[in-house]
Specification:
Layout (H helix, E strand, L loop, with lengths): L23 H6 L51 H14 L3 E5 L2 H9 L7 E5 L4 H13 L3 E5 L4 H7 L5 E7 L11 H11 L4 E5 L4 H4 L9 E5 L13 E5 L2 H14 L5 H11 L2 H21 L3 E3 L9 H7 L6 E5 L3 H10 L4 E2 L9 E3 L11 H6 L7 E4 L5 H14 L11
Helix pairs in contact: 2-9, 3-4, 12-14
The structure holds pyridoxal-5'-phosphate.
The site of pyridoxal-5'-phosphate (PLP) has 16 residues, from helix 3 and helix 4.
Pfam family, one: Cys_Met_Meta_PP
EC number: 4.4.1.13
Catalytic activity: an S-substituted L-cysteine + H2O = a thiol + pyruvate + NH4(+); L,L-cystathionine + H2O = L-homocysteine + pyruvate + NH4(+)
């Protein structure tokens, strides 16, 4: 007899009922038996005690019912019930055929990039997350995979470097970070699929989260997120999330995860599931605060990069793909020293890399998150050294505005009205 605590698979003969679809905010908190949304190993969990919170199966191994090892789970690198549960929940939210959680966002990208072989090519943006840039560079020097960096706001720039023989992946971020450039996912996916049927269109959707944008519905083949950001929401864990559109792609991804051993630990899987339930309320509040902050900075004459800014060149395009502008924006002051003073004069806004947490953060990307991109490359990609990035949290917006205004005044960045405070 199997140990009663070891979950058994749902009967494979049970009649298939397509799961009812709810709106995103409902789906985030509505956690069901996972079997309907995924098709890989370890997808079915039946807790004998009907625990309201999914148990943490903090175990490396699972006892097998027979000598031929026919148990649902055997080894946590290959599969763990807590991990399966969060994967199934995220697959539903991302509208993926199957989802995977791994140890960090970079680890998610590493898994995806291993689908490309030496001699093959990748096309990626020119305003990428710093760590993404570093990993692609490493793959170029150590893995024989060349990456073409192009301006992904221009689909024709992508088409120019596509090579049906070599291109195996087109990697997009939209909005990019920190310049908030928008890539047209449906148009690019159509062009890539028509010219390079073997290439996967991959989207890093960390900035939007699946609550605001679901790239698999827009034509992408693979989506990934840093779960460290909005999905978990509290900066208390690191995780990466991958969603695949087809089971064929999912199988290739699972193979790499099992082979390299980067699957998310049971405890972090549990924390991620706990965090993701509040994604909708956090994102709505963070976004509403971000709109107020962006409008304030625009009214004070700063150049503000934000998809919710009607002056953004791709304001309309973003609205066709996402249900909101998100909560990350950047602005230019015109002077690096002024920017440094602003960042160091805030009290409420914490100086930190990263975003997606409930508290507000301020940073200078060229000095922090994007410092691994060499200065000449930053210059070539028009990344302003004075750029300040704001990652807006759920605080009272009045406090955030007052703190920012005071920092701007201390730094002398409000020339028209130095005495206003
Ligand atoms: C943070 C981040 C990553 C990397 O995720 P980690 O969890 O830090 O490894 C990748 N892409 C974007 C856009 C990010 O913001």
């Amino acid at each position: 007899m199997t140990n009663v605590l070891t979950p058994e698979p749902d009967s494979p003969t049970a009649a298939f009922q397509p799961p009812k679809r709810y709106r995103p905010a409902t789906e985030l908190v509505h956690i069901e038996a996972p079997s309907d949304h995924t098709s890989g190993p370890g997808t079915a969990i039946r807790d004998p005690y009907q625990a309201a919170s999914v148990p943490i199966y903090q175990t490396a191994t699972f006892k097998q019912p027979s000598a031929n090892g026919s148990g649902e789970y055997d080894y946590s690198r290959s599969g763990n019930p807590t991990r399966s549960h969060v994967e199934s929940h995220l697959a539903k939210i991302m509208h993926a055929q199957r989802a995977f959680v791994v140890s960090s966002g970079m680890s998610a990208l590493d898994v995806i990039l291993r689908l490309v072989k030496a001699g093959e090519e990748i096309v990626a943006g020119d305003d990428l997350y710093g760590g993404t840039n570093r990993l692609l560079t490493y793959l170029g020097t150590h893995g024989g995979v060349r990456t073409h960096h192009v301006d992904t706001t221009r689909p024709e720039a992508i088409v120019k470097v596509l090579d049906p023989q070599r291109t195996r992946m087109v990697l997009l971020e939209t909005p990019t970070n920190p310049l908030i450039k928008i890539a047209d996912i449906p148009t690019i996916a159509d062009l890539v699929h028509a010219q390079c049927p073997d290439a996967l269109v991959v989207v890093d959707n960390t900035m939007m989260s699946p609550y605001l944008q679901r790239p698999l519905e827009l034509g992408a083949d693979v989506v990934y997120h840093s779960g460290t950001k909005y999905l978990s929401g509290h900066h208390d864990l690191m995780a990466g999330v991958i969603g695949a559109k087809t089971s064929a792609t999912a199988d290739r991804i699972y193979h790499v995860i099992n082979a390299t051993g980067c699957g998310l630990s049971p405890f972090d899987s549990w924390l991620l599931l706990r965090g993701v339930k509040t994604l909708a309320v956090r994102m709505e509040k963070q976004q509403a605060n971000a709109v107020l902050i962006a409008n304030y900075l625009i009214s004070r004459g700063f150049r503000v990069h934000y998809p919710g800014n009607p002056a953004h060149p791709q304001y309309a395009l973003h609205r066709t793909m996402a249900s909101g502008p998100g909560a990350v924006l950047s602005f230019e002051t015109g002077d690096v020293i002024t920017s440094e003073r602003i960042v160091e004069s805030t009290k409420l806004w914490g100086i930190s890399v990263s975003f997606g947490c409930v508290n507000s953060l301020i940073s200078m990307p060229c000095r922090m998150s994007h410092a691994s991109i060499p200065a000449h490359v930053r210059q070539a990609r028009a990344l302003p050294e004075d750029l300040i990035r704001l990652c807006v949290g759920i605080e009272d917006p009045q406090d955030l505005l007052e703190d920012l205004e005071s920092a701007l005044a201390i730094a002398g960045a409000l020339p028209g009205d130095p005495m206003m405070l």
